[in-house]
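Cross-check.
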Amino acid sequence: MRYRSYNNGGNFFWLGLSLFFMFGGFRLLFALLPILAIFFVISLLFNSLRLGSKIFKFGRINDYVKETPTEKQHFVELMIRVISHVIKADGRIDQREIQTIILFFQQKLKYGVRQIMWIQDLLQHSLSRPESFDQLCNEINAQFGKDEQHLLLELVFEVSASDGNVSKEEMHLIQKMVSILSIDDSIYQSMKARYFSKSGNDYDDYYSVLGLSPNASKEDIKKAYKENCKKYHPDKVQHLGEEFKTFADEKIKQVNEAYEVLYKK
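Predicted model, tokenized:
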């Protein structure tokens, strides 16, 4: 798969060409075609402003991307590309869903201005020029192990469920991802229960956090607790960046709270 690049070489070329024509290169054209030349000048001005803005934007993004390990770049881009498929699985793109994604990165992963500019560009690019969903999943399989894949699935669930409305088409695509990545069904069902089984009853929701039904025994609770602690151990994903380690930390806190309440019940 071709990953997003923020090299400004092409932009500088067109900006330079525009300035060349503006400051002398088009004098002959101006003399021969005054009306067209006026429109041409206006077009060049707007084009120069647009390219200047794009160069500034890409420059800021590139400064951040250059500081970011390639593995993390690929993980985030693949995540955005998968999420872009999920949010338009029902045949339409809802701006509220896009805003929800941006808010997720701002609030849950604590992304700053440059990082959000990167996410917005990746999202816009992914929605306008989508890669094959199967190809994306195969790329994930090739580049990342099960720990990273579980985190990716968790993040997709988190974003999909954040607006409180997940369509059948979106769930079908998530299931397809689980199938292609060969993610264990118990892990998938556990995540699904946590995000889509909110009952308003605190105890039931604690069971959902551990991926259990309300009639689970204390042995089941203890076993699920150990499995979840192992699955969300922050050390497994710290190589992807502090934000993903923090995300895993938050999941561990939820698991600990659920265990403390249910085991003492």
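The radius of gyration is 24 Å. The CA atoms of residues 84 and 127 lie 6 Å apart. Passed to J.P. for a second look.
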